[in-house]
Specification:
4 helices, alpha+beta, 16% strand, two-stranded antiparallel sheet
Length: 91
């Protein structure tokens, strides 16, 4: 199940201006950009009011499982790439 929580909060112009400056610095960072962006996002994503949540279940399209099995039985090696965690990708 994939979940998405929706939240909101009001921020002042001064807080936003400082956040934007920090974001632009993180975005242009030549080292550890991903971590820098995560920290900037975390700073903004605090003290929020939850306004909703969604959940969807990812299922294989019709026939995909059968096709994968047939390829495996035919001796064809197949790799399926996923952006998911390793625990949920193994099967």
């Amino acid at each position: 199940l994939r979940t998405l929580v929706l939240g909101r909060r009001k921020i002042g112009e001064q807080e936003f201006a400082q956040w934007l400056k920090n974001y632009e610095q993180a975005q242009s960072s030549m080292t550890d950009r991903e971590n820098a962006l995560a920290k900037v996002a975390e700073a903004l994503e605090s003290q929020m009011d939850i306004v909703g949540a969604t959940g969807i279940e990812d299922k294989l399209q019709v026939g995909v499982e059968e096709t994968i099995l047939r390829l495996r039985f035919a001796g064809i090696k197949l790799w399926v790439l996923t952006g998911d965690k390793l625990e949920t990708a193994r099967n």
